Amino acid sequence: MSLALEVATGAVRGGTSILFAALGETVAERAGVINLGTEGSMLCGALAAFAIGAETGSTWVGVGAAAVAGGALAALHAYLVLRRGANQLANGLVILFLGLGLTSLFGGDYVQADVALLQPWAVPGLSSIPWLGDIFFDQDPLTYLSYLAVPVCWWVLFRSRWGLLVRGAGERVEVLDTYGHPASLVQFAAVVVGGMLAGLGGAQLSVAYTGAWFENMTQGRGFIAVAVVIFASRQPFRVAAGAYLFGAALALSPALQARGVAINQFALDAIPYAVTLVVLVAFGRRQAAEAPEGLRKVFEISAGP
Amino acid sequence: MPSTRRTLAALGAALSLVLGACSSNDGTTASTSDGDSSSESASAPGEGSTKVGFIFVGPKDDYGYNQAAYEGSQAVAEEFGDMEVLTAENVPEDDSAVRIMQGMIDKGAKIIFATSYGHLDPARKIAEANPDVAVVQQGNFIEGDIPDNLGTYFGTVYEPVYLAGIAAGKATKSNKLGYVYAFPIPQTINNINAFQLGAQSVNPAAETYVVNTSNWCDPAKQAEATKSLLGQGVDVVTQHQDCTATVIKTAEAGGAMTVGYHADASSLAPEGWITGSEWDWDALYIDIVKTALAGDFTGSKYNENYRVGYKTGDNPFVQSEYGPMVDEETKALVEEAKARISGDGSPFAGPVTGQDGATLVADGEVPDYATIEAIAVFVQGVVGEIPKS
Questions:
Q1: pLDDT digits over B171-181, tens only?
Q2: Any CB–CB contact under 8 A between B253 and chain A?
Q3: pTM of the full predicted structure?
Q4: β-strands B273-279, B257-262: how paired?
Q5: Is CATH 3.40.50.2300 what the domain over B158-278+317-383 is classified as, yes or no?
């Protein structure tokens, strides 16, 4: 397999968990709520899929549980931020550590649990397309689900009445309230949906990609997802491109090493963040202008006096 | 394993700081590094102690390095019925380890096991501040003078790894072996070299491809590393990681064979399991405690950089069970090599050549453990470079 093909395939495989989480964060941020606890929702999803999959003997029940677990943790964030007035950024970190602590506490018993993994499945026909077939159509079922999630997210956000409410809540809560729509309920729902998507990302990591549960196994991918969202200006298709770009950065290192090429792993690991910084420096002003107005307030408030 | 890991560890440290602060408030004053405590107790380090303390860098149920050490601590508890065994998990490799160990000493422990590579500096501080406490550290190496109450111990990890390399060299059809490792620390380099030397001793065409993940447990990176190796035609995969399931499952799913590390994971690879290496600390821990209790620690073999291997006694790093596909010829070759290492041989018996062609061990020379531990380059036949940091 050529280097380019191997990296591209690895980018999709490894980028999918980031893609789910970033799509979720896109929905939440479009509604004006930043959730830095995305990583925590991923961890809850990763453990729930593995543990419930093992307990019930059905991996797909586990995947459902992953969405519920990720959504539940995000619901706590939504409650504290929207109902109790907690600072979004600080509370997100609290949520992350809560997720990390809870999954470490309850996850120990499941490290060697036996789960039927979601194996890659080549789509008949499509998988024989040169290049694209190998890259996109010989993957695990949750990766296929992510292909659907991207256009669905886009359509809901930008073409549906629901999306209008979500974006309206993100821009100016008062307007929605004035027209009789419960803005904070819309925001609450958006954050929970975001957490559910992050939970699915965690599930892809544990029951499809790595076949393992281990404490803190997400290793910062939730934060990469948040970076992708900023990088991609909260546009679902750009989010997908960003997630795969970051996935490619992760896949490049082992592909080069297996060919006997020495590279600095730490430098490669920094690429996603470096790219985000470059994008922010280059397009920062435009991006700030594109950001939902409600989000800008968050940063203004947290910037302090 | 020596692990820079985990936010959780930091959280654990914070928690134990709080707990430590509480316990030193209600207790007597802690002995500090000013140390006139030596005048009150003339006893030898660890003599007559009623408690033993163990610190681990990770969780006690990681199915790997830390779990093995924890199980050793429980063997000590079982052997010495009236002895209280204190344990602390997720202890970071910094000064919070000093506080946690001091807390154990304040509770009456006079024998301390610091079980991670990076616990050496904290262990040294503790030993210097508490002359009546015997402190032993697992896996690191003390340079220069060694205090009367400090020592390191370890198995020779590369011996069973060499034997596993023999089995891998016989099993491979593509003559390409793969090694997923975390960081290029001396122990890992020894393992990779021993694996390759073992393989090429029975199969001169065998090569070992190496990929590092810069992390002791990042399953996604492990999956990608394994797939990259398989992509190069590797058909036997082994590893040096803290959590081991992903590499084994990925290799098995890809139709490749597996050599395990840390734990017997043969159940994860019913088709491809060859053999592996795993820890069994019970006998060594018990003997260290016995020596210290009797007041014989100072000047004993545990008061230095103690390395136990097939040559000198019971290596706590033992070979795992064979998988069903390993044939009798391979088992005989392994037994033969084990007998050779236990006698006057070594996995690193000369000639050993480095990747660049330089002679690392001259023909006919049998290096001692310290010499082997100092080898910091890959041997010929290893494909890949040691990353520069």
A1: 999 999 999 99
A2: yes
A3: 0.83
A4: parallel
A5: yes
